[in-house]
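Researcher: Good morning. I'm working through a list of sequences from a screen, and I'd like to move beyond sequence-only analysis. For each chain I'm collecting a predicted structure so we can compare shapes side by side. This is the next one on the list. No need for commentary yet; just the structure.
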Amino acid sequence: MHDQGGEAGGQPVVLVGKGITFDTGGIIAALENMPGGDASRPGDVVRSMSGLTIEIRNTDAEGQVLLCDALAYAERFKPSCEVDIATLTGACVIALGAHASGLFANDQALASELLTSGTETGDRAGQLPLWDDCMSQLKSNLADISNPGGPPAGAITAALFLSRFAQAYPWAHIDIAGTGSVSGEAKGSTGRSVPLLTDFLIARATSAR
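Model: Good morning. Structure tokens for this chain:
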């Protein structure tokens, strides 16, 4: 979705998420668990909306491929900035546990705004690096980029993958894999990062007046 009026001059703040439900599993002991004949297999190369080709190394990382097209689609709104939120990687859970969401950004001013909103609301985020050193894990001899790049530095390589599709504007990625839900007797969704994003949007709208 996008907020049409968040910035002076009419440039919107664009928020992006993904809506993947669950794997339904199989109905017999041995099968090719695909929703259709055109579903991706490991080793396939697909062309993204941006034109970049992607080598599919692991079909369980489908969320990254969905998000890259959403990020490319967002360019048509000429945003002042874009923030995507997703339960993206188990590696982020290993890095930050359930206490803080992972934050990555190609613009430090945007990252600082989001970190401040997280602190103000108690919806904390911890910033992790977007190091070019890890880009080598995304190299492919078949396509422009491969997916995924982990497991080493898996949260970072997932964010680096997304960054290739968000180069036209200030962008941030919030990985809520560890904070988006809780298990046990109190299992359910936490609503993270709604408080952080609400405070961020209010602050942006206030400063634009």
